[in-house]
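Subgroup meeting minutes
Present: P.N., E.W., G.H.
Scribe: E.W.

1. P.N. recapped why we're keeping a running log of single-chain structure predictions: easier to compare across weeks, and new members can see raw inputs and outputs side by side.
2. G.H. added today's entry (94 aa).
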Amino acid sequence: MRAITSLDVLKDYRLALTFDNGTSGTADLSGSVGKGVFACWSDGSVFANVRIGPSGELVWGETVDLCPDALYLKVTGKQPEVLFPALRHEPARA
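Output recorded in log:
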């Protein structure tokens, strides 16, 4: 499991993130703004009030948090199987 160690809020609902393994990159979250629990982000000041939670996740108040693993995959473009090898499908042998 990855953890976010630093973040910078950028314009247009993007975040510059650094992870515990040294990987860094930008996560564009603009596609979620105004949808469901992310409706609160319509106010840009709410989005900018992000912090890193105790498990390395991103937290906005008491209403929204984002998993660092999902953000790692978004930043790197990698598939879930890279972080979670158990997800690799092994063909059954008879």
